[in-house]
Design a protein that fits this description.
By secondary structure, this protein is mainly alpha-helical. The protein has five helices and three strands, in the order βαβαβααα. The two termini are about 20 Å apart. The protein is elongated, with a radius of gyration of 15 Å. Helix 2 links the parallel strand 2 and strand 3. Strands 1-2-3 form a three-stranded parallel sheet, with no helix packed on it.
Length: about 120
């Protein structure tokens, strides 16, 4: 079994043309080289934006990788936490760790639901 492993795509929206082009090229290569499974281990998005997850999912679908037996997707810190927001807003105005944990848990659940197939 041939497995490809990538991480840290850090997609920043649909205008991130160079990164999206490179991602397309990688997926083309994985198909051409007959990889059996792809693992993406985190940081699909640069700022925890579900719109970026959608872009990644569309790319996986268009290259035939969006199926549980072809691809494993794991969330990274940038997929679950908007780090700039975390540093500025929560730590300054909301120092209670329980509230930050609830936000994190909600985002994790949303990510898992989004990539449930």
């Amino acid at each position: 079994m041939k497995i490809a492993h990538i991480s840290d795509l850090h997609i920043s929206g649909s205008q991130d043309r160079r990164q999206l082009h490179d991602f397309d090229r990688m997926l083309d290569h994985f198909n051409t080289a007959s990889f059996d499974h792809l693992i993406i281990s985190g940081d699909l998005s640069n700022n925890a934006d579900p719109a970026d997850w959608s872009i990644v999912r569309e790319k996986l679908e268009s290259h035939g990788f969006y199926h549980w037996d072809k691809t494993t997707v794991l969330a990274g810190n940038h997929d679950l936490i908007n780090l700039e927001e975390e540093l500025r807003f929560y730590n300054a105005l909301n120092p209670f760790s329980l509230i930050r944990k609830k936000v994190f848990d909600r985002k994790l659940k949303e990510f898992c639901f989004f990539f449930r197939n």
